[in-house]
Target: Methyltransferase
Amino acid sequence: MNLKENVMAVYHGEQPDYYGDLMAAVEFIPDPLFIQDALLPQDGQEYMDSWGTIRIFLPGAPGPHPHITRDNVVIKDIEKWEEQLVVPSIEDLDWTLAREVASKIDRNEKLACFFYPGGLFERSHFLLGMETALMNYMEYPDEMKALLRVIADHKMAYIRRVAEETQPDIIFYHDDWGTKQNLFLPPRVWRELIKPLQQEIADTIHECGMIYMHHADCILEPIAADLVEIGIDIWQGVIAQNDIVKIQEITDGKLAMIGGIDGPKIDVENITEEKIREEVRRAVDTYCPGGRFYPSIPNGICFREWNNDIFLDELSKYGREYAEKHPIA
Model:
């Protein structure tokens, strides 16, 4: 099997040659909106994105982040959000590079993937600030619902445009709904405000003939069944702090998952090679029996080069050994 055939075998619950990270089989199509908003100089200076949020990229940081103050926050009063929000146009973006890259991807060998960050929850706290957003979800649900409606409509229009311009195999949608301890919002609030719109987004992705892969490297266990109801095809970023075996039982094989290897646990100094290999084998042995599982580090890599080399070597060896010793009937 080539890379695509192998990961799709896992996706369909069929026998693969080996178990490994689905992300090794994708090629990314550059997103003109992401390039405009998030590919910033690593100089610690302030830059405004297309929605008006100020971001900075500090020297030595892994990536840019919002830098929101009382003075620069986009929405200062949730009851007057319509007066303060300017929704960016998607009509004047340059798709030349995206179309060029998409046309060169060998779709027989690889999956064409479009990375789409800034989901409903993430965009809401970029516009309001995290603390204010969390309070508004509880205290001003009607206003938040109306704001999220506008964001969702923009996202669906953009997804349709992405499909028209580049026709990816996968939309890699990004929205962290929690931390390593719990969800940001109570499940009741998430179900009332986020879930219905997220299902519309999922429907749009599917109507365009694409797989919906959702990144969230956090706790999602309390809403695991909801992920299936929404129509998420693949959950990428499944951290080991979730009870993954329980989630596999709850979702009854309807949700493919990528993750399970505890990256922070093995991406440390003075760890032994055997400890790294042991964690890889633990994840494979524990989660692959549940089916449709891609063992990986949720954020993709160890940042320490030596640790990453050992991790990749063990995943390559043991992922193949496990597949050979545990054939799917």
Notes: The two ends are 18 Å apart (CA to CA). The mean pLDDT is 96. The chain has one domain: 3-325.
